[in-house]
Design brief:
alpha/beta; five-stranded mixed sheet; 4 helices; 8 strands; signal
């Protein structure tokens, strides 16, 4: 009888552990109606996006959730649907393509014969947040000449977006808005070329 009760307790404990389903998240690539920059798009024939460099802290499946200024948690139930680096790269490229409709926007890697006129490189120091607060993106982006990788401009960037709901979905939505805002900064930078 005692063994049966012990076995029942173990089964219940295991069921309790597995009752929280794993949720997979992706950065939204359609964030409303962005301002289109047709004059910039006509001047710039092609734009390459990437590489995206993440700190090792973010190079993991679980979402990094900020607890406070010095404490982070990595969720084991809220995971990125793919590698965050790829998610970020493709979301940024799509936002740029929407804003630059005539420009051919492509992501790394590309064929030598398809080398873009310009290339955007992003280096992130922070891309996290709190579900009941705000999401933050901090780092820099560089514009390089496509043919010789000469750095044409560099902009340090710090963006913050308030979450709209007090859950992880609200955090990921806010992070998606930050990627769209980064695309806006890049398009403004391209306008000076």
């Amino acid at each position: 009888m005692r063994k049966v009760m012990l076995l029942g307790a173990v089964v219940l404990a295991l069921l309790g552990c597995s009752s929280t389903p794993t949720a997979y998240h992706t950065l939204a690539m359609d964030m409303g109606n962005p301002a289109v920059a047709p004059a910039v798009s006509q001047r710039i024939r092609s734009l390459g996006v990437g590489p995206i460099t993440l700190p090792t802290l973010l190079d993991r499946e679980g979402l990094v959730i900020r607890q406070n200024a010095t404490t982070l948690a990595v969720s084991d139930t809220h995971l990125w649907g793919g590698q965050l680096e790829d998610e970020f790269l493709h979301a940024l490229a799509q936002h740029l393509q929407t804003r630059l409709p005539v420009t051919r926007v492509q992501t790394i890697p590309w064929e030598l014969s398809q080398t873009p006129q310009y290339q955007v490189v992003v280096k992130l120091d922070q891309f996290d947040g709190t579900p009941h607060g705000k999401a933050q993106l901090r780092g820099l982006w560089q514009l390089q000449a496509g043919q010789d990788d000469k750095i044409l401009s560099t902009e340090a960037i710090t963006l913050t977006q308030q979450t709209t709901t007090p859950d992880v979905v609200g955090l990921v939505t806010a992070q998606s808005v930050l990627v769209a805002q980064l695309a806006d900064h890049i398009v403004r930078g391209l306008a000076t070329r």
